[in-house]
Amino acid sequence: MKYDINKILELLPHRYPFLLVDRIEDLVLTDDLVEVTGIKNVTINEPFFQGHFPDEPVMPGVLVIESMGQVAAVLLKLYTEIKENERRLVYVTSIDKVKFRRPVKPGDQLKTVATLVKRRGNNFKFKFRATIDGDLAAEGMMGCVVSSGLTLKPEA
Hints:
This protein is an alpha+beta fold. It has helices at 5-11, 61-79; strands at 23-29, 34-41, 89-100, 109-120, 123-132, 135-147. It is globular and about 45 Å long. The longest helix is centred in the middle third of the chain and has 19 residues, at 61-79. The chain is 17% helix and 40% strand. It has a single domain (5-147), classed as Hotdog Thioesterase (Thiol Ester Dehydrase, Chain A).
């Protein structure tokens, strides 16, 4: 299953310059596997490259993590029972074992695979792998909660 930027804009509250996923390439929702693959096309026009670093532009690691989280948020919006007009947000609750293996630079296509490894109510744990042309760029684990309003308290 593939989703373009228009569908992503329907699912996520993020907007430029903080929308860090351009399309969903694959979505698997089975009893055995819940996984999503998302793409971020990194261009020299990204505002963060103005200061990070002007002579050697590198995407900040925290934004690589944010991109991975947004890919997971798309999956959660499609996977959980969220009604179409219901206001639910996905919040990051933990980041574990993150390792950056190579820098992300202008012209790169960051491909993130987020695999659901655990669910308890509205709390979710994902394993991430982000690659560029098949080379590992970043990996780690992320916890998320689906909530309404501006609270980290999960819904019953």
